[in-house]
Amino acid sequence: MKSLIIVLAAATSLVSACVVVPDPPHRDEVHRGGDRDRDGIPNRADRDRDGDGVRNRNDRYPDNRRRD
Predict the structure, then answer these.
(1) Chain centre to alpha carbon of residue 18
(2) Residue of 24, 8, 26 lying closest to 16 (CA atoms)
(3) Fewest CB atoms within 10 A around its CB: which of 13, 17, 20, 41?
(4) Rounded Cα–Cα distance for residues 39 and 12 (Å)
(5) What is the pLDDT along the chain (68 residues), one digit of tens a residue?
(6) What DSSP character marks residue 54?
(7) Full-prediction pTM beyond 0.70?
(8) Contact at 8 Å (CB) between 49 and 56?
(9) Phi and psi at residue 40, in whole multiples of 5°?
């Protein structure tokens, strides 16, 4: 029983060390992609890049938050 617990503890420690958690994008990386509305999502991936509440594909002026 003791040997089983030791083996399980060793296996658990090996597996737990393999977990990779991605870091959030660095501020400079977001800035390089452009972030017009400063929501942390680069413009190329942002569905509302000016932050006016209208999605880019429905927005006649997707870079101007004062116009829809």
Answers:
(1) 21
(2) 8
(3) 20
(4) 38
(5) 778 887 777 777 666 656 666 666 555 555 556 787 788 888 888 888 888 889 989 999 888 888 76
(6) S
(7) no
(8) yes
(9) 90, -5
